[in-house]
Each structure stands twice: as structure tokens, then as C-alpha cells.
Description:
Helices cover about 35% and strands about 20% of the residues. The chain is α+β, with helices and mostly antiparallel strands. The strands form 2 sheets. A 3-stranded antiparallel sheet has the order 1-5-4. A two-stranded antiparallel sheet has the order 2-3. A hairpin with a 2-residue loop joins strand 2 (about 35-40) and strand 3 (about 45-50). The mean pLDDT is about 90.
Amino acid sequence: MMNEQVRKIMTKNPTTISPSQSIQELTEIMYNEKVQQLPVVDNGQFVGLITTHDLWAFPANQEDLKSKKVKEVMNEHVIKISPKDKVGTAAELFMDKRFKTLPVVNLKNELKGVVTSFDVLRHALRQEYNNHILYKEVIEQK
């Protein structure tokens, strides 16, 4: 189960944001999509990740939300994995680095998807238990 490739459990074509978009646009997308992190893509290239934690660390007022850009807040130093990396590698990274999302990129640094700690947990649960009793609609959602 942990030797399978990440491409089998990743979310393909995730919602992304451009570095030139405003913080206000970012917060609206995060709220509407119900996500806590967004990959930042510029001209098809993965350039960073922005999370709710990044926003919490950014002291902003209403004017900042309109004038500041994603590139001013995003994290450019992000650990990435490839679609061929193992699910176990993702699990180890989640345990070691204490983050929740890994961008999945190809050799050209094009974003192919994202894998989250929840994706790994759901994958492990599906492998172990055939019949889910609690939260069936959440586990089988994907």
C-alpha cells in the first residue's frame, strides 16, 4: 500500500492561484473552495505554496488585502514530490516536516497535482478496511 505511486492518490488539477493575484482574491478562493493551501503557478510552472498559516503570519488590514499580492506572502521554498514517488515517501515527509500538503510536479516543474496527509490516511484506511462504518461519505468521496 505504501509502495504505490503518489499519482494514484493525488488530487489532479487542483485549484491554483497566480503570484500576481491579490490576497483578497486568495482568501475568497480559499473560502469558496474550502481549502487551507493553494499551489501558486505562473505560466504553467509551480512557483510556491500559500497556506492559511502564511496568511496568519501576515499582518494585514483591509487595504492590504486589496493591494498586496500572493507573491509577497507565498512560500517559495517548498518540498515537492513527483508522480512516481511512493505513498510511503509522502507519509514520511508529512511525519518528519509537519506539513499537510505536497505539490506533485514533473521534471519540468509543472504542477500535476497535490497530495495531502488526508489522502495518505484515506488510502491506508481503504486498504485496511473494506466496509467503512463511520464517515463513509467522507472516505468514499474521492
